[in-house]
Amino acid sequence: MVTVVGAGFAGVEAAWALAERGVPVRLYEMRPLTTTPAHETGWFAELVCSNSLKSKLPTSPAGRLKEEMRALGSLVIRLAEEHAVPGGEALAVDRERFGEAVTAAVVRHPLIEVRREEWTPAASSPGDTVIVATGPLSTDPVSEWLAQVTGRQHLYFYDAVSPTVDASTVDLSVAFAQSRYDKGGDDYLNCPFEKDSYLAFVEALVTAERVPLHAFEAGGKRDAPLSPPQKEEEFLAKVQYFSGCMPIEVIAERGARSLAFGNFKPVGLTDPRTGRRPYAALQLRPENREKTLYSLVACQNRLRFGEQRRVFRMVPGLERAEFVRYGVIHRNTYLEAPKALTPWLELRELAGVFVSGQLTGVEGYVESAAMGIWSGIVTAARVGGGKAPLPPRETAYGSLLSHLQDPTDRPFAPMNVNWGLFPEPAEPSRDKGVRRERKLAAAVAGLEAWLEALDSSAIPAPKGTLGV
Ligand SMILES: Cc1cc2nc3c(=O)[nH]c(=O)nc-3n(C[C@H](O)[C@H](O)[C@H](O)COP(=O)(O)OP(=O)(O)OC[C@H]3O[C@@H](n4cnc5c(N)ncnc54)[C@H](O)[C@@H]3O)c2cc1C
Fold first, then answer.
1. Which tens digit of pLDDT belongs to each residue from 24-71?
2. Which residue out of 27, 30, 211, 216 has the highest number of ligand 1 atoms within 8 Å of its CB and is therefore the one to mutate?
3. Which of 9, 281, 400, 437 is most open to solvent, judged by the fewest CB atoms within 10 Å of its CB?
């Protein structure tokens, strides 16, 4: 028997993957008796915000991940397709019908026992195999326990991340590699501003449209009336307390030169094109060991995504940058996975306890569900006395897990699946389209190899006929 905590995207997939492999599951879900500040129903796998499960195109990173999930027997993707509504390239779903269908399938599964109650660590005994999939709004006792087990510094309560760009789309005839005073290698890229381009950027930044604040993020209840600016200030105080940062647009509002003296100070830098110090410089830091992704240093913000693309493309060198992830500052509980988790998503400090979904540091419904399937496979193998073979690095799964294990000393930030996570192809090309085709081909071959390895491992094969 495996205990799965939370019937969100990860929890239902983990429970399903286990049960379909013949392993009995006890699944805890506290809703509707107790709820989170974002959920509104008692359905399993509730879509708390958008009803989109991202791109359907098999040639996109999210489409590729879905292909791999399908091959592993995903419940979420199958039912999302059955309850799809028109959404262009995106897999959009009817949220009521989808939630109802997922709940019905899980509740009816003969090997899944559902307990509609809040789980606390005291409910499990040492030696139990547990998958904790309590999501970005985990209850306090669960968060407190995870902080104790992993070390408080490895659990985050707020996600304050800067936008990330695909390295191959940065204009290297403008952005230059250099660290301040030439000390510490050339890991950083610098985007140099002249006075005019800097002032235009600041003006665009402070006037750009921002994401409205959720009441609960500032500590209020979901339905509590918002009273900005008081709530906004409470929220920012919390963010600063937990993450030590302020949104860049708030800093820029303090005065036109505040960024030039702070986040974008150009000291110790010399632009090789002019031979002098730039007026200001936005630094880009590698987001992974392979340097295929760069994050914009100290650019955490709460602008709308379209606005971020517009404003940050005004930065010299980023005019054609492709954003693989936008900046956010919001409530989000997650672990510093490279320090706290093994690639099998088991807590390094507590054998037998696995973490799944958004808590692991992936971001999004689909990515969370994908991790759920992996946790189900891993624990099915564990119960059978074996060890699941890791996905090849080239697959979408391998790419996500590689992010969760990347040992760089950058601050760890949650990530959705994107091109930059897939490894550069063995045969390089300057053409982005060709590179992506090669990445996809490698992912397809990697999946085949992985499925074979899973078939020949000690993991029970999915029965395929147990659930409906
Ligand atoms: C406000 C908000 C909006 C978001 N919008 C989007 C979006 O539009 N698109 C997108 O792709 N991603 C979005 N996300 C990100 C994220 O991908 C989703 O939250 C996703 O649902 C995460 O999946 P999960 O399985 O990890 O957690 P969840 O789906 O949140 O599931 C966790 C489950 O655990 C239950 N639970 C928690 N604690 C306990 C406990 N102690 N005992 C028993 N049950 C418990 C909860 O009730 C919940 O059902 C959003 C996140 C938030 C917070």
1. 999 999 999 999 988 989 999 999 988 999 999 999 999 999 999 999
2. 30
3. 437
Both tokens of 87, joined, read 């959404």
In contact, 44 and 19? CB cutoff 8 Å? no
pLDDT digits (tens, 9 = 90+) for 408-418: 677 788 899 99
Residue 160 has pLDDT above 90, yes or no: no
Q: Is 61 helix (H, G, I), strand (E, B) or coil?
A: helix
Q: Does domain 164-326 have CATH number 2.40.30?
A: yes
DSSP 270-330: -BTTTTB--SEEEEEEESSTT--EEEETT----B-HHHHHHHHTTSTT-TTPPEEE--EEE
Confidence of residue 233 (pLDDT cuts 50, 70, 90): confident
In three-state secondary structure terms, 405 is helix
Residue pair 170/317 in contact by the 8 Å Cβ criterion: yes
14, 18, 23, 28 alpha-carbon torsion, rounded to 10°? 20
Domain range annotation of the chain: 2-159+331-455, 164-326
- Residues within a 6 A CB radius of ligand 1: 5-11, 28-31, 36, 38-39, 48-50, 118-119, 133-139, 142, 357-359, 363-365, 368
Over residues 199-210, the mean pLDDT reads 97
**Count of alpha carbons within 13 angstroms of residue 150, beta-carbon side:** 29
Closest atom of ligand 1 to CA, residue 39: 47
* Bridge partners of residue 84, in order along the sequence: 93
